[in-house]
Amino acid sequence: MNDPSPTGSNLSIKFSNITSEDVLRLSVPVMVSFIINIIINSITCPLTVLLNVLVIMAVKRRPTLQSYANILLACLAATDVVSGLLVQPSFILHMFLKLLEVDDEDVEDVVVDIHDSALRGLLVCSSLHLMLVTYERIIAIKYTLNYFVIMTKKKLKIAVAVCWLLPIFSELFKDITGDSLFSNVLVALTLVSCVLFISISYLLLYRETRRHHKKMKTEQLPREEVERFTKEKKALKTSVFVVGAVLLCFFPSIVLLSLVFHFSLDVVVKSNLYVILLPFVRTSGMSNSFLNPLIYCLRHKEIRKFVFRFSTVQQVHPTH
């Protein structure tokens, strides 16, 4: 486990950087910050699990939703389920331990280790899934004729398996060796690669969609081709919304990391504002798992109907 103290050389923003001394130094503001974040996560945590499970069930049970694009979104929803089951609960428990001033360091270390390991693993897994979602859109729009040659069920299963096995292996390696360098390097490389890949990919996709639009205006294309392009463009917009939500939720983390690199870790950690804002930064990042299923429902009418079918049934058949 990395050195959790504020003076450690590790530049990763870990919730364990908030020590008992920080809580005592700013007892009222920090306690208020913890309580607000406990309330937010306690509300969104069960909803995150429920909504993402319903999205997965919708894709699995509705044949019309079983396109490769939707299957990959369902796989991304699976990572969000794990976030709601592990990352958020461990975060809530750690804040409770701080509020109650529990002095058992062994218990706190276990909770922090579970939270940090799950968060690191899911950062890698989710980033790889986002790259897969983007890659599928490139093949669908730019290489339409070879789509079903390049994208097959077997290749899809292998790619998704790698997305899960790589972070699991990384965390197991860290636990066995006690060295988290490989795990931290993997997270950094994956995040940088994800940002670069998605940025370049969407530039290419933007140019390709513009080309298709011009072609549709100047040429009399078959109706089937126009309908197919419209469908693929809608799926592309969904992936854009998903990526945009990720950037929005992790923007506070980027700002905090920028402050760390600009003013040095010691200066930022010792500042009062850091201790208060860090829980909100973490909550903002984790809220992405709650927003994703809402985006799927917004973009897919059939998923929306499936997810909210229980409320519809209750309205039609009210309980007596």
Automatic annotation (TrEMBL):
InterPro entries hit by this protein: GPCR_Rhodpsn, GPCR_Rhodpsn_7TM, TAAR
Keyword Transmembrane helix appears in the UniProt entry: yes
TM ranges: 34-59, 71-97, 117-135, 156-173, 185-206, 238-261, 273-298
Membrane topology: Multi-pass membrane protein
Domain G-protein coupled receptors family 1 profile residue range list: 51-296
Compartments in which it is found: Cell membrane
Gene3D superfamilies per record: Rhodopsin 7-helix transmembrane proteins
Pfam family membership, one: 7tm_1
Keywords: Cell membrane, G-protein coupled receptor, Membrane, Receptor, Transducer, Transmembrane, Transmembrane helix
Protein name, as recorded: G-protein coupled receptors family 1 profile domain-containing protein
Species name: Porites lobata
Lineage per the UniProt record: Eukaryota, Metazoa, Cnidaria, Anthozoa, Hexacorallia
